[in-house]
Design a protein that fits this description.
With 285 residues, the chain is mostly helical. The protein contains eleven helices and six strands. The chain starts with 19 loop residues before the first helix and ends in an 8-residue tail after the last helix. The chain binds zinc ion.
Length: 285
């Protein structure tokens, strides 16, 4: 039998099987979604620097923007944030087609943004018009008052914003109880690589571990049929993060067998422990 969510196989005849790892990960997704959605719903200004949970989202995004299944959400989020930044609240279908290429059509993607109340889709003169709502403006306005805004800040904000959208998709995937429910997902597909990669990377610090061994990542992904090339890319990205002191991983060392051991940044372990214990968020003012 095959796990409905991650593709893990084991012997048996149960039809709607969900593996132990996915069941545990479900709790993490639920807690994280409540936390992040709360930030987006309640706050007047959404500032990534004062909310470590948003930094965490942005630091986890290296998995999403290279992934062909999820890249489109990053591109659209980027377009929306850039517009909001310039006090513009309208995107035409023509602009959308110019900035983001897809062969799959817009309907399913735009539906997600509508469900999250980020945009409203209207039709004018035979084309779609996307009206940008409050949430994107709140994110953009956190930084707008700065005198000089560099491109990096805009990119980082777009990453957080697409992180929010993708977390919502994972939250929807979390609600899948059997394989029929896949029709509720955009394009009737599960972002399985995203789910499996984040499952191994987030579960460790959530359970209180300070580091993760590359061998564990290889085995975990391999058991779920994720191609070894993808696995290698993730490990390379983790390694690369240690060059910059602000990412999800702060340090790398070798174990006795010569495998790399990635140490999570302190804020990651602190933040996930807080979420696990259900403590409320503290903002750095
Ligand atoms: Zn599973």
């Amino acid at each position: 039998m095959i796990c409905v969510k991650c593709g893990y196989t084991k012997r048996g005849s149960e039809t709607d099987f969900i593996c132990d790892d996915c069941q545990k990960f479900s709790v993490i997704i639920d807690n994280l979604w409540n936390e992040v959605n709360g930030v987006f719903q309640e706050l007047e200004v959404i500032n990534p620097e004062t909310d470590p949970v948003l930094k965490f989202l942005s630091d986890s995004s290296f998995i999403t923007h290279d992934n062909p299944q999820t890249r489109i959400f990053y591109k659209i989020s980027s377009l929306i944030i850039n517009k909001a930044w310039n006090h513009d609240d309208t995107i035409t279908e023509l602009e959308l087609n110019r900035s983001v290429s897809t062969t799959r059509g817009w309907r399913d993607v735009l539906k997600i943004y509508e469900e999250l109340d980020i945009i409203e889709v209207k039709t004018e003169k035979y084309q779609r018009i996307l009206k940008i709502k409050d949430k994107a403006q709140k994110v953009a306005s956190a930084w707008r008052s700065l005198e000089s805004i560099d491109k990096q800040i805009v990119n980082r904000t777009a990453l957080i914003f697409s992180g929010y959208v993708l977390l919502y998709i994972l939250y929807k995937m979390n609600k899948m109880r059997d394989i029929e429910d896949i029709s509720q997902m955009p394009y009737s597909r599960r972002p399985r690589t995203l789910w499996v990669s984040l499952m191994i990377l987030w579960s460790k610090p959530y359970e209180g571990e300070k580091s993760i061994n590359e061998d564990e990542i290889t085995k975990f992904l391999g058991r779920r049929g994720i191609p070894s090339g993808t696995s290698l890319k993730i490990k390379q990205s983790l390694h690369y993060m240690t060059k910059d002191t602000t990412g999800m991983i702060q340090d790398v060392s070798l174990d006795k067998d010569g495998n790399r051991v990635y140490k999570y940044s302190d804020y990651v372990t602190i933040e996930l422990e807080r979420i696990r214990e259900g403590r409320t968020r503290e903002r750095v003012e």
